[in-house]
## 1
Amino acid sequence: MPIIETDLLYAYLHEGDEHHEIATRLFEKIRRTEIKPTPEISALSLIELEILLKSGIIKVKGRTPTDQDIAEYFEELCEGFRIYSIPINPITCESVRLSALIRAKYNLSYYDSHYAAQAQLHDQRIISADKVYDRVAEIKRIEPQSYV
């Protein structure tokens, strides 16, 4: 079960994203259980999305969302995870420790190092369009197009 990086979750949720079509096809295949085992979403992706919403980088109804908007956004997102049977991969003490080592070794960003660490501890695979993961020898990046 590879980890799906936030870039694809974001792309799926936002039609204007350059990877929206590929992400939509990927999640549709997941919904139809055509991808086995089912890829997982990192728990950190939920926090990252919330921060992007709270900061106004992600808009709701064309504006910086209120806390009520954020709650509704996540209500829909959580329902989608239930419908699609997508599990959430938890953040562990070990994954936080490993992310710091990965950041130091590969000069990855905070979030990217955490996703790389979770992938390494999980099954060494991450589904992402972000080529930064190609630098991390301990994991394999899977192009989302390979599933669609």
Note: The chain has one domain: 3-147.
## 2
Amino acid sequence: MAMRSPGAELERTELGPAAALFRSLGDPARLVIVRRLAAGPARVTDLTAALGLAQSTVSKHLACLRDCGLVTSEPAGRASVFRLAQPALADMLAAAEAVLAATGSAVALCPVYGLDTCGQDAP
């Protein structure tokens, strides 16, 4: 049995919300939605066209992002208009793209978390 120091346990606890944030963004469709909303507000129909996914699927992804406090919506007639709740999210996505470029997208080739293992349970 490995012993953990109290400081390490506290650090893991403090970083839990950050881990949850990254999990909420862990689906390519949600990243496309965030990227699109970084350019400006959009309706579900706009996002459906951009993603090429069913409206119900896009709505589920938007609900996830809304539940996490990352997007907001407001009624516009019979539709809803979605926008980023946190503009810093666009900066975070740009920073992630810069890290991927700087590492030669090494994470995509990672045997544990890479593209070939997406959707599988990671250790």
Note: Residues 119-123 have pLDDT under 50 and may be disordered.
